[in-house]
Amino acid sequence: MHKTAVVLPPPATNPLRPSLFLAVASEHRAHRPIEPMAMVTAKLSSPATARLAPVRSAQPARRASLVRVRASGGSYADELVSTAKTVASPGRGILAIDESSATCGKRLASIGLDNTEVNRQAYRQLLLTTAGLGEYISGAILFEETLYQSTTDGKTFVDVLKDQNIMPGIKVDKGLVPLPGSNNESWCQGLDGLASRCAEYYKQGARFAKWRTVVSIPCGPTALAVKEAAWGLARYAAIAQDNGLVPIVEPEILLDGDHGIERTLEVAEKVWSEVFFYLAENNVLFEGILLKPSMVTPGAEHKEKASPEAIAKNTLTMLRRRVPPAVPGIMFLSGGQSELEATMNLNAMNQSANPWHVSFSYARALQNSVLKTWEGQPENIEAAQKALLVRAKANSLAQLGSYTGEGESDEAKKGMFQKGYTY
């Protein structure tokens, strides 16, 4: 009798998708002891490259049994859920200051400052030491440099945040690079060594992480680019949870293009469908993640702008169709909208109850007025911090559905869209 083992293939509708289970076969023979079952391994590097490894077994096949796989998070599961709920707390959102040194340098150059570590530290100290910030901000995403920095008085930025009940977070991706075989699209690198980096960030005090990849509508998007984005986010999320960090899942659909809002909705539904498929395939704990989606808007070059009500309707439609209610928080990115637009659109989405905490994770839409008020001058620090509190409070009210837009400055109304924007 031949002795074989079988591996069940993925569903026929998509043979490239990795399966959650490996099937193994065994047969009991009455006239001799059962021989050890052969180990079955399959390397899942990406959905496009997953292959079934050849299997050898000392047993003939008769009955398949399913191998159960535990969810990500392990011993951190309760902490992950608690962290996510803290970040997704009423009236609060995320301050994103995770720009790379190069991007931060561009911001500093706009006010005539050199891109030095001293100047980057000074600007981030201005932001993080703002008294009362914790009333409106629940988490701050930091760049690696900032996670290990301290104030000029010697207090670590991590401790500054903790004192205001603000969760420290960390950007963990390594940026975008061209995706071979695509239509001039990108993929996000950084999985190599991610587990060890996450472990070190946790020791330093970080409790959540961020990974940003992008999807371009003018470039398609191709099925390859969407799958690569979704798979990378899922692998990152599982690794982050395994090391105690709540993953923020961010497939940014760029504003670039002249398409209408209906096209954005179509692409967003496709992208988030793929993302949640692969999150499930990687056994990610949904209660221990946060999302950072783009709002569903027309392309930046579309001939007609959409109202906050239209943006809210289309965005919430997409979320209700694709995002399970187990996810605790939706923390929108601003994506180049003006400070005022980002706040008004968020407010429109909170005019009725949602199954998730619907809030913000803004960078430029919280910092633009602050930077221009500061101008790199020590005597302007207090005024710049007041400008930050104005924007933080406005978005806090928007999260509660109570923002009116009264008294906004002309600066807040200026758009910040940059074609092909990178961090």
TrEMBL record:
GO terms for cellular component: chloroplast; cytosol. Residues 402-423 are annotated as: Disordered. It catalyses: beta-D-fructose 1,6-bisphosphate = D-glyceraldehyde 3-phosphate + dihydroxyacetone phosphate. It is found in: Plastid, Chloroplast. GO terms for biological process: fructose 1,6-bisphosphate metabolic process; glycolytic process. Its main location: plastid. GO terms for molecular function: fructose-bisphosphate aldolase activity. Its EC number is 4.1.2.13. SUPFAM superfamilies: Aldolase (SSF51569). Pathway: Carbohydrate degradation; glycolysis; D-glyceraldehyde 3-phosphate and glycerone phosphate from D-glucose: step 4/4. It comes from the Eukaryota. Pfam families: Glycolytic. Keywords: Chloroplast, Glycolysis, Lyase, Plastid, Schiff base. It is an enzyme of class 4 (lyase). Belongs to the class I fructose-bisphosphate aldolase family. This is Fructose-bisphosphate aldolase.
